[in-house]
Amino acid sequence: MAVMLVIRLQRTGRRNQPQFRLVVTEKSNGPKSGRFNEVLGSYNPKLGERNLKEDRITHWLEQGAQPSGTVHNMLVDAKLIDGKKINVLPQKSPVIDEEAIAAEKEAEAAAKAEEEAKEEPKEETEEEAKGESSDGTPEEKKETPEETKEESEEEKTEEAPTEETKEDGEDKKEE
Known about the structure:
Strands 4-3-2-1-5 form a five-stranded mixed β-sheet. By secondary structure, it is an alpha+beta fold. The protein is elongated.
């Protein structure tokens, strides 16, 4: 089984003082394990200092070691590797706005409803125009909400006694 070698950065600095070693290690070894084959240089990001052993880096690259993304970009800057830099930052997934999606669906539904309303209503069949149902029996006239309101108001006025009748009844009791 072939061992996969990788050239990567290993952090050595204290908290808020980052410093890195450039090391060759097996892919299976973690960056903090401390197990590595050789130190190839160092990097101080605060000062921007890079100390690279160019001859040893080219040797390990010839042996088949693969640089990590950040190390690849460093080697491209140092012109040890020809090629373009790699985007090492994680790609962001698009933000899904659930409210916007719901609003779009509502707008589509409203547009469909308007289209249906614009279409001409179905013409009444001859039976409906005569007031008969499809089985030939006469249909009762359907009342509109306005008609039902008017009827209920009339009923209330009939049921409630007028003030005159109350006064007349009171007068009779007093005598």
